[in-house]
């Protein structure tokens, strides 16, 4: 049986948690090598490539944000010409037919002076040209059939070809980007946008949302844009641009100072910067207002880096009313992660 190697990426400072998850999924023999300490690492599993991917996808890790296969690795001298030469060879060796396929080239590099002069956009555009002229493929940036992943360290060039769904994210390194809008209330809006994407939700399908810890109002503004009625609760001020919105009710109060009719909401969101147990207690106090089958999206602070214990404690504090569907550290989470839960009937 052939072993298989991948490059794994987590949020900075959470790679050890990602490695712990991989050890659980792939067994204690999995080997790691740092590429960018704390964030990017190569891992080698005793299982062949497809089997390794299946094991990881079957129980998607919380902290592993992205993975890309390593089909070939090559020492290199850091020059542009040698880079293109090696990639040409690796593509030829891969032997996969790329004709008429939509291919996205995703290139990343480790930090380091020796890599400072390597221009990733120039690498990408040269490969795009090669893909189009030599392989009759269609270079694309999104919605690809296959992703050609490149990772450069000072010593090596790593190359892999994979289906986007096998990489955990179809964004390079899992770094999903949203366009910042003019007048955007807060960057926190990106967290809810990413949660919607990652958990496969369509927020416009909900009717009425309760937003706990809503100020300055990034999440509230997204929910209003999606057409929901929103009840926002926060002792701090909501952005003035939101206050006149006809679909918004705003209580400038703490979460334990409000109460609502039973089943008033089909969506509860909470992005409070609180210790996880305090937050869970405040959410529990308002759970009667979430209808059975309703969804909850909750940010959890990871105060002391005891990440797995924190998840266990919050999930147990919110049970049995809320049942965990998925926990994920999103690209837009910092020292936190996001839970997607459902209210039981
Ligand atoms: C990270 S901010 C929320 C950002 C918001 N989701 C957005 O998109 O703009 C955390 C908020 O939680 C609020 N908060 C803290 N304690 C609270 C409590 N007991 N009840 C309600 N809100 C609280 C804070 O006032 C703060 O505005």
TrEMBL record:
<dbReference type="InterPro" id="IPR002877">
    <property type="entry name" value="RNA_MeTrfase_FtsJ_dom"/>
</dbReference>
<dbReference type="InterPro" id="IPR029063">
    <property type="entry name" value="SAM-dependent_MTases_sf"/>
</dbReference>
<feature type="domain" description="Ribosomal RNA methyltransferase FtsJ">
    <location>
        <begin position="185"/>
        <end position="274"/>
    </location>
</feature>
<protein>
    <submittedName>
        <fullName>SAM-dependent methyltransferase</fullName>
    </submittedName>
</protein>
<dbReference type="GO" id="GO:0008168">
    <property type="term" value="F:methyltransferase activity"/>
</dbReference>
<dbReference type="Pfam" id="PF01728">
    <property type="entry name" value="FtsJ"/>
</dbReference>
<dbReference type="GO" id="GO:0032259">
    <property type="term" value="P:methylation"/>
</dbReference>
<keyword id="KW-0808">Transferase</keyword>
<keyword id="KW-0489">Methyltransferase</keyword>
